[in-house]
């Protein structure tokens, strides 16, 4: 393995980690925004209220996107270990 393929694998790994993390992060951000708007509208400013909806939304996103995430990671690992 030469330096160019190592750098290429590192770049692909970083892009894969970004792509795999994005669904859960996006859902957490959207749910956090919705909860913040509801809290602002009702003037309830308790910081603990926003954690449970985000936690449940991220758990649902991981349950929904988990198989896709696993396939992407396994495909990358097979590609790296096979050397192609």
Task: List the keywords.
2 helices; single chain; 86% helix; 84 residues; mainly alpha
Q: Classify the secondary structure makeup into a structural class.
A: mainly alpha
Q: What is the number of independent domains? A: 1
* Main sheet summary: none
| Shape, per Cα inertia axes | elongated
Spans where pLDDT lies below 50 across 5 or more residues: none
- Portion in helices: over 70%
Description:
With 84 residues, this protein is mainly α. The protein has one domain. Helix content is 86%, strand content 0%. The protein is elongated, with a radius of gyration of 18 Å. It starts with a helix and ends with a helix. The model has no long low-confidence stretch (mean pLDDT 92).
Quick recap:
This protein has 2 helices and no strands.
Helices and strands in order:
Layout: H1 3-42, H2 51-82
Helix pairs in contact: 1-2
């Amino acid at each position: 393995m030469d330096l160019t393929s190592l750098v290429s694998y590192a770049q692909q790994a970083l892009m894969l980690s970004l792509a795999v993390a994005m669904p859960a992060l996006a859902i957490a951000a959207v749910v956090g925004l919705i909860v913040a708007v509801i809290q602002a509208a009702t003037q309830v400013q308790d910081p603990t209220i926003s954690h449970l909806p985000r936690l449940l939304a991220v758990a649902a996103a991981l349950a929904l996107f988990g198989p896709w995430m696993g396939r992407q990671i396994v495909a990358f690992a097979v590609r790296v270990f096979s050397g192609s």
